[in-house]
Amino acid sequence: MQEYLIVALTLLGVLILAGLGLVVPRLRRRPQPPLPGEAVDTRTGEELAGPPVEAPEADLETGILVEAPPVEAPTVPVLETPEPTAGRLVRLRSRLARSQNVFGKGLLGLLSRDRLDEDTWEEIEDSLITADVGIEATREIVDRLREQTRVLGTRSGAELRALLATELVKALDPGLDRSLKTTTATGVPAVVLVVGVNGAGKTTTCGKVARVLVADGRSVVLGAADTFRAAAADQLATWAGRVGAEVVRGPEGADPASVAFDAVRRGIDAGVDTVLIDTAGRLQNKVGLMDELGKVKRVVSKHGPVDETLLILDATTGQNGLEQARVFTEVVDVTGVVLTKLDGTAKGGIVIAVQRKLGIPVKLVGLGEGPDDLAPFDAAQFVDALLGEPSGPNA
Length: 395
Prior knowledge:
It is elongated, with a radius of gyration of 37 Å. The protein is of the alpha/beta class. Strands 7-6-8-5-9-10-11-12 form an eight-stranded mixed beta sheet, with helices on both faces. The protein has helices at about 1-30, 90, 95-110, 120-130, 135-150, 155-170, 200-215, 230-245, 255-270, 285-300, 320-330, 350-360, 380-385, and strands at about 40, 45-50, 55-60, 65, 190-195, 220-225, 245-250, 275-280, 310-315, 335-340, 360-365, 375. It has 13 helices and twelve strands. It is about 45% helix and about 10% strand. Keywords: Cell membrane, Cytoplasm, GTP-binding, Hydrolase, Membrane, Nucleotide-binding, Receptor. Belongs to the GTP-binding SRP family. FtsY subfamily.
């Protein structure tokens, strides 16, 4: 009996040992939870090479596995490289085609007539006035042309074109300083105020001026001090973003002088060359607008002097635009004029009228809707573009 008990216990021990042999390997092979950043094979529990692969998720309604959408890399904005400003006016000469109808084809055609009688000179005078040259400037130009043609006996198309070009360049006063003061010798950024009425393309032109400065190798910070138009700051930010410039802005309705002050301070901290400040242009309350502009200038001057004040004028308004200009020049020390929309229905002679009436040089002209269609003004190049090719029977 005792022997049977020993045999039974022996068999029981063998069975227990056999069971343990089956269980332990399975415990050893049980997959451990992966560490963060590790990828494992879900069947074997072994670590995989490379980044973890997200398992497809199941649609809650259908139970069908759905592939996870790919993760898109953040897009990096592509900065534009503005065209060099040198020679822009020559490249954009075709934009002055409408003015050429008055100057190149009209005036040169009249001057090329076989007989320059009083009726012809009256037609020449009317053509210049129609081109917005202004009455006083027109009389001076016609008087000099009459004298020159009488003394010199000029008749060929090329000679007449050269004669007319000389008189028009004189009327534009080529000796005026048309350079933009966009750097200082003190290491502090140059401050440029941009003023003008809404509708003249002021904010757009401000963005184009920023591109002109970047094209000339300047670093720029823009101040969105036109806080009365919500779209103005957004528009300015769009222009600045294309060339990698920074915009300082405030909430809608904020104090414009405060925004301008912050823009100059940011320009100093960033060590840029130029701070360009776009201002409000409402004329509904002339006194309020002028007081506001005066305050902006006083507050900005706490950092240093305003180096340049550019007045934006719409060339298509002709002589009427000069009245708007006087409103600004009475209060703000305007140092230069930017004449926009000169490629539309405007007459090229408005450049002469602006300079004579205001005594302020035209420094930039807008000749199209493109981002780089703003060109530094050069009297000789401008007249050459206006006149086009020599015309007349003896050209």
